[in-house]
């Protein structure tokens, strides 16, 4: 449990916005890191909006994921976090197999 203070909130938001996908660690490592910071922000009453989370998932991807990022960002209606994570896992698996 963390106390809600401006310093805590800003530190967590900085962590959230600075996360970047490292393809050598796998996409789920990136997704889990985002989820962990989102849970911490939620615990102090400052959970990011769904579109902030989906934007972060797509913006933070390594350039090697640009094809799936473009596809997901052009989808209408906007995909959910679950849909994005599923597509990223599927894309990563197909890249490993090829």
UniProtKB/TrEMBL annotation:
Superkingdom to which the source organism belongs: Eukaryota
One Pfam match: Retrotran_gag_2
Name of this chain's protein: Uncharacterized protein
Naturally occurring in which organism (per UniProt): Athelia psychrophila
Lineage: Eukaryota, Fungi, Dikarya, Basidiomycota, Agaricomycotina
């Amino acid at each position: 449990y963390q106390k809600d203070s401006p310093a805590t909130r800003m530190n967590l938001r900085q962590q959230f916005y600075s996360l970047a996908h490292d393809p050598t660690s796998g996409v789920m490592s990136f997704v889990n890191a985002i989820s962990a910071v989102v849970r911490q922000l939620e615990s102090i009453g400052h959970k990011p909006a769904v579109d902030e989370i989906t934007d972060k998932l797509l913006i933070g991807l390594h350039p090697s994921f640009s094809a799936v990022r473009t596809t997901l960002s052009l989808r209408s209606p906007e995909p959910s976090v679950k849909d994005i994570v599923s597509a990223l896992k599927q894309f990563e698996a197909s890249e490993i197999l090829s």
